[in-house]
Amino acid sequence: MSAPRIGVLALQGDVREHRAVLEAQGARTSAVRRPEELDGLDGLVLPGGESTTIAKLAHRWGLLEPLRAAVRGGLPAYGSCAGMILLADRLLDAPADQQTIGGLDVTVRRNAFGRQVDSFESEVDVAGVPGGPVHAVFIRAPWVEEAGEQVQVLGRVSGGPADGRIVAVRQGSVVATSFHPELTGDTRLHRLFVELVRAAA
Amino acid sequence: MSETTPSTTGTDRVKRGMAEQLKGGVIMDVVDAAQARIAEDAGAVAVMALERVPADIRAQGGIARMSDPDMIDGIIAAVSIPVMAKARIGHFVEARVLQSLGVDYIDESEVLTPADEAHHIVKTDFTVPFVCGATDLGEALRRISEGAAMIRSKGEAGTGNVVEATRHMRSIRAGIRRLSTLDETELYVAAKELRAPYDLVLEVARTGKLPTVLFTAGGIATPADAAMMMQLGADGVFVGSGIFKSGDPAQRAAAIVQATTFHDDPSVIAKVSRGLGEAMVGINIDQIPAEQRYANRGW
Fold it and tell me: Does B77 touch chain A (CB under 8 A)?
């Protein structure tokens, strides 16, 4: 097929980094800020950022329901950090009114590793990503507290106080990571997602 | 291998990466937990805790210092978004205190009264990241060489007047563009003129951008001000006195957030600018004596 079209939710966050990595994997990207900008997409990326801000803007601009419909309808989606929070069906440590897009049958805890002084870099083995562990950057990151039966756990933290915590998951064509591959130059997770999008298209 | 996986905090990537997550967002000055909640509800990506907003510091005079730890604790407890706080220029003990309180970013800020007239804090020594103000490219690169992980224009805080932020954004961006036209020999001279380390000058010349995000600050009071700064190349916006010195802070805060996201769409900016009530009154820069301008603080 020709280059898949992947939209990056561009209400706030590290949109530019995701677009650059996706384009380097052969995708065409576009910014999504309005419902009509979801038309004709083969895949969707939810970037890192502040999840409360992104959710509020999505709600205010009538984007939340179209995003839910798109993901429910099978549009492949990948979320990093705030993107994982947006894809979760259930949240912990979030403001009571924080809404999500959903699509992953998981409970995600916001800021689970602590505050910024606790943000860290580590190595994480990710199932389906060949060539050794992924160098993972966790920034005020969430983790998956509980995952439903349909959810495949792709990666866990190893070592340290958070040993064994789930930080990469997949359910059908929806993928999420607690960490930010868009910040490291390691393109393997984005390549995996672009391949998933190609296969689904 | 699992038991020996090294995990490191306080790296450049973690510090600068935190600021990357704030891009396209608005960081709002707040002086108590109630204001912090209004800011979070309006869609702020972070709040900046300080004892008085710059307009009040300017009006009341006296020495402006780091905030009371109880006030910072109260704000941290009130919101789930990142909390930043200001330390005086060069006051490395205030910075240590703020780090121990668990703030997510420290602003080594010219809005507070400087504690050192020659030296900034050695920011590489800290786990918590720092943001610093700059008026031009050389100042931005000096701060980055000391360890700043985020740069903002200084503007002229507490004035509600965007003219100085405009000047600083244009100056920093023009400085970057100029470097990209120079050859290697000329870059050595440029580093000398900028009073900045050669390796950073070379990096900016090669990449065409700062190695950190560049936000804007100092005098932003309206949705259109925020959108203009974004179009001048800012990665995001700090709003100080402009929100809580206006007639309807909650509505103005939400409007500035939306204008920052849709900064290239005048119809959105028009829509959110309606019925906002009074903007802060503001001050003309030429009515402020040079020695009282905050942008002149820092070296």
Answer: no
